[in-house]
Design goal:
five-stranded mixed sheet, 6 helices, 172 residues, alpha+beta
């Protein structure tokens, strides 16, 4: 790996998940929104939150929780397109930007990911319980033309998924 790539990774990716950080997410979303406006296309936004993650950390410990964050990062890289931008939004929250993805395609892709989560993550000396993710969906331009609007809509949909029992995908 070249020095410039290594420096770029350290500036824009979280060490634990290997995903892009919030700063990169904000810059990328602005860039993708300009591109989508120019091309008159869609952007899908998936905001995901690990269900009962605090309880998971309390039961299995923070090292096990860290392992889950790392595994989620690997799964996102495997299961989303190379053009998608997977980010760690904060704590146990994640955000994926899907350029040129219609609202229907975004929902299908979120459901496909949610339906394929692994049970019983391995950790030295024990098998950990399964962990699920709730997801909220927003689409550009249907749900807004500003980043703040899209984040609010996806966050509200995520909150609704949590209220409806977790391990769900809800559109904004």
């Amino acid at each position: 790996m070249k020095l410039s790539e290594s420096l770029s990774d350290s500036l824009f990716k979280t060490r634990q998940s290997g995903l892009y950080n919030r700063r990169f997410m904000e810059e990328s979303m602005q860039r993708e929104m300009l591109r989508a406006a120019r091309k008159q296309t869609h952007i899908g936004i998936i905001m995901g939150d690990l269900d009962h993650f605090k309880k998971f950390n309390d039961v299995y410990g923070h090292a096990a929780g860290d392992k889950i964050i790392t595994q989620i990062g690997k799964l996102f890289k495997e299961r989303f397109r190379g053009s998608d931008i997977a980010c760690r939004y904060g704590g146990e929250e994640f955000l994926i930007i899907l350029p040129e993805s219609s609202p229907e395609d975004t929902f299908k892709r979120a459901e496909a990911y949610a339906g394929n989560q692994e049970d019983g993550h391995g950790f030295p000396g024990q098998i950990l319980g399964s962990i699920t993710m709730s997801m909220g969906i927003a689409s550009y331009p249907e749900n807004g033309t500003r980043m703040e609007e899209l984040l609010r809509v996806s966050d509200t949909a995520l909150y609704k998924a949590k209220q409806e029992g977790r391990d769900k995908v809800v559109s904004g």
